[in-house]
Write a structure and sequence with these properties.
The complex is a heterodimer of chains A (346) and B (330).
Chain A (H helix, E strand, L loop, with lengths): L5 H10 L6 E4 L1 H15 L3 E5 L15 H5 L4 E3 L4 H13 L3 E5 L10 H8 L2 H4 L9 E6 L14 H5 L5 E3 L4 H13 L4 E6 L8 E4 L11 E4 L4 E5 L2 H14 L5 E5 L2 E3 L3 H11 L2 E8 L4 H13 L8 E5 L7 H7 L3 H12 L2
Helix pairs in contact in A: 2-8, 4-5, 9-13, 10-11
Chain B lengths: L5 H26 L13 H10 L5 E3 L5 H6 L4 H8 L23 H15 L6 E6 L6 H12 L4 E7 L2 E2 L2 E2 L20 E5 L3 H16 L5 E6 L18 H8 L3 H11 L5 H24 L7 H4 L7 H15 L1
Parallel strand pairs in B: 1-2, 2-3, 3-7, 6-7
Antiparallel strand pairs in B: 4-5
Helix pairs in contact in B: 1-2, 1-9, 1-10, 2-7, 4-10, 5-6
The chains are: A alpha/beta (346), B alpha/beta (330).
Amino acid sequence: MSAPGSQGAEGRALHAVPEVATEKLTIAQAVRDAMLLEMERDEKVLVLGEDVGVDGGVFRATDGLIERFGSDRVIDMPLAESSIIGMSVGLAATGFRPVAEIQFMGFVYPAINQLFGHAARMRNRTRGRLTCPMVVRMPYGGGIHPPEHHSESYEALFLNTPGFKVVIPSNPHDAKGLLTAAIRDEDPVLFMEPKRIYRAFREAVPADSFAVPIGKAHIARTGTDVTLIAWGSMVRLCLDAAEVMAREAIDAEVVDLRTLNPLDRETMIESVVKTGRAVVVHEAPRTAGFGAEIVTQINEHALLQLEAPVQRVTGFDVIFPLAHNEKHYLPSRERIVAAVQSTLHF
Amino acid sequence: MPELDPSRVRDLYRDMIMMRAFDDKALKLQRQGRMGTWPPIKGQEAVQAGVAMAMGEDDWLIPAFREHGVMVLRGVPLHLVYAYWAGDERGSSYSEDVRCFPVAVPVGSQWQHGAGVGLSLKLSGDDAVAVTFGGDGSTSEGDFHEGLNCAGVFDARTVFVIQNNQWAISVPLHQQTRAETLAQKAHAYGIPGIQVDGNDVFAVYAAADEAIQRARRGEGPTLIEAVTYRLGDHTTADDASRYRAEEELKEWEGKDPILRLRRYLEQKGLWVEDQEVVLQEEAHKWVDDQVKALEEMPPQAPEEMFTSMYAEMPPHLSEQMQSLVEEVRS
């Protein structure tokens, strides 16, 4: 049984060496700091999107960047998602490293042709002659009671489209380190930011630049009875649920995938083999969600070690509801506990 | 009439003859099963030769998919153009010093890349210009309008060239737009739009030269509408006789840009039959050599579908590649 409240303590213990200077940052601030430090390091890094300049971004994730780097490097784009991505393809293929912002993931559809048709394909199409080293930052997910189209989690769309990397941080430390790694990456990275917890908590983050490697999951909490597999804002919910269950002597391990493509299957499977039970948690709709892929991979690699079928706690197969019903749509601590119970009493 | 000395005029003619020869050859190869689906450029040679001649050495070309002529003139080896359309990705992997994007199949999407490259060149202080092409059909796509709009906002070093060949597969221009011209669409974005006779290579050259110089001086983008005609089918998978009147085709065959330029050269005393014979022989020999180069390319290994997906191959792709390799070997 691991100590209660281990998330913060363990997270920091694993992440930071004591003598490193740290700052207490929110996810939004960590995202900004990563861009700022990368823009200082490499003059080819540009930021572009809607309201990213003078306004500093609707979530303030680009706050102060235009003052520091000017409007040639922090570009307020016309209100056109396809242009943001299409121009980024042109910029990236000719030597720049654009960090494009799609203001809300729910608005990414007009840019899909450019993302699927070009950004994901340029390297393969030209056998490596032209590439698209670009990052597309997209605040995603529910929980903020917004108007329609502001709550979606579309990761599955991008996971069935080869050519991208898909990265989703769950905390300020990883937000900074993973975004730094994404900007330095040679391939297009979709960087989904859990807007629900943009400012929900602060965490000590190294003040200097650092990269968290893409493709490596993180054990956010160690446990022995069941593995909870999640990413983004659902990681906190799983940690929360784990604390509740700890009071009933159920010791849950929480695997924060951090990167959905490439998936760190090894870490995930190792955990499931150890615990013999697994629950996958995601906000996106259930059918053909990434949870389905995870269940399949567990079946392929750990079936005989399973004590019970893998459970899923997900959104429903419905349009994301407006504010009134949002709480009934989103996975909850209670649903996670119930799913765990069902694996324990199979 | 632009100032061009006779040798350059003959170069234009030569370029157009070369295009016609390799286009004809591709159609033959396709019928023999040695080529995949091919979009012919027949009838559109003047647009491509005229723009290519106006481009500077370091300028970028961002083509759509009916620009093989200008691609070859910009340095893409013909055998690689053939390779792409014969089904081999290595056809888009030409050398680093050829500043040319690969073929863009999703209609209109390349206009945005043209705007992006034009902005890139401006931001990096590069003296070069981005020249991007598309067809009349693509002007109905949102990306055309977004590309023009953004290029205008950012004063991108971009020249947009519409090859208005009047047919988007089976849909004629009047069903594509209510607008009198495609060039006028530029005005809504605050940039100049010029309509030229796309079968008059001099007119194309003059318009392209002016637009490219203007962009190079940092004065912003230009839209050129070159009115031409697709003398062939949309692709080898199409049969234009299903939707296009024979008389219309005959009328435009009479306006063939190659015949027009040849008549000009002959009238000016710049061209005689002997030169034509030599040029035709040269063109056919070059094309045959390129077909040979195509057919001498060793086949792609099946695993090459995996090797350029990412800078570093992730573990799941290595596994999948391995399983394919084992399957192929067994």
